[in-house]
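Example 3.2
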Amino acid sequence: MKKNKTMIVVFLTPAVLLFLGIFLYPILKTILMSFFKIEGVTDAMNLWEFVGFENYAKLINTSLFQTACFNLFRIWFFGGLIVMSLSLLFAVILTSGIRGKKFFRAIIYMPNIVSAVALATMWLQYVYSPRFGLLKNFFSALHLDGLASTQWLDNEHKFMALLLAYCFGMVGYHMLIWLSGIERISPEYYEAATIDGANKMAQFRYMTLPLLKGVFKTNITMWSVSSVGFFVWSQLFSNVTADTQTITPYVYMYMQIFGGGNTVTERNSGLGAAIGVLLSLCVVLVFTVCNKAIKDDDLEF
């Protein structure tokens, strides 16, 4: 027994040290930095100026940060509705017994293996282009001149154009998560339901959805994490750092740490750390609410 404990300690020690050094230490240091005013992210601790909760108070009262948070909420909520609905729809269709399942699954997932830069460039140059874009040609062919002449990248439509392009690239990833959950459901349940006279819609509503509660929580958590880290798309859709239509908290954090935009006159890595802490708390809050609101302890596969 003593020998087994020694072996456990020997094998666990490297993993624990790596966890402490790579994950726990940066987290604790970021939380600590959020209470200081720090000009450079690599400054020694003797150059830090303690400000307490001033960084958090400053963020709450800054209109640009409020706009960034509102944009993030719109991305998370409206984008989440689009992505979750489409990904679930595709997952249900692909598990319904259609032919070419592997081919369609690969096609839908393909945008996830393309870099965000290339994907955003495709949307900017070949979909939203006011000269020869796909949308312009499509609406022109339908003689919808009003829609064909729409400037999708102006301030009025830029956010929606950005959101749709981002959702297009995320559907395949979340579809695979839904697929993994649906494929775990025993076919015997559906056979029994069919014998009892339940149609496909009734089976989906009363069997598939309840048995996917755990998968739904996973999908919402992963979507929250990816939404919080929204940065590259925002930068590609606008060459103005502080564009109120595309700015997100992650972009604002970049501005505070590295400088950028006309609104940032001095760098403050402590303020950037405070933004990181707030974003992490948002993800934890979403995860906690999902676990409290959605319970699947009585369900079995």
